[in-house]
Structure formats: structure tokens, C-alpha cells
Design a protein that fits this description.
The chain has about 100 residues and is mostly helical. It is built from five helices and no strands. Helix content is about 70%, strand content about 0%. It is flat.
Length: about 100
């Protein structure tokens, strides 16, 4: 569809804009639209815990698809890695 003679942005154009502005904003580290969507979905799920809200926001029709944004093991993994790092630091300080 053409709106006032201006064609809609293509997927590639949107991706280029997102990369351009995230690179400028995030210390030379660009993001893709997919990464931003994934971060939004994951944060929404972490904050709300409401899979139906997530489905509505991201346009999913299946709870199976929406469940990909729930990652209860991720926090456990981060905590375990932090604890291992602390143990290593403590061990090295003993020497």
C-alpha cells in the first residue's frame, strides 16, 4: 500500500535503521530487530509472568511459541556462573 505517495519501508530498510541507531546508541554495538524483539519479549515475561500478555504483545497464537521467551534456567545459570567466579577468585587469593 502506498500512503500519500510514500511506499512503506521494506524489511531490509527497517533492519538497516535499527542497526544504524542501536550502533550509535550502544557504544558501536548494533542490534537486529530480532534481538530487540527477543529482549522485549524476555523482559516482558520476566516482569509480568503473563504468557497471554506476551502472546498479545508479540502477536503469537500459540503458547508453545510464546513459551520460547520464558527461560527460568537462564537466571540459575547466571547465578551459578557468578558463584563459580567468586570461588575461583577466593581460591586464587589464598595462594
Amino acid at each position: 500500500m502506498v500512503n500519500n505517495g510514500v511506499p512503506p519501508l521494506s524489511n531490509r530498510a527497517i533492519e538497516a535503521l535499527v542497526k544504524k541507531y542501536t550502533k550509535a546508541f550502544k557504544s558501536n554495538n548494533s542490534k537486529s530487530p530480532h534481538k530487540i524483539r527477543k529482549s522485549y519479549g524476555t523482559n516482558l515475561m520476566d516482569q509480568s509472568g503473563d504468557i497471554h500478555l506476551l502472546m498479545a504483545q508479540l502477536g503469537h497464537t500459540s503458547t508453545t511459541t510464546a513459551a520460547l521467551y520464558t527461560n527460568p534456567g537462564q537466571e540459575k545459570s547466571k547465578k551459578a556462573a557468578k558463584q563459580m567466579g567468586e570461588r575461583r577468585t577466593n581460591y586464587l587469593e589464598k595462594d
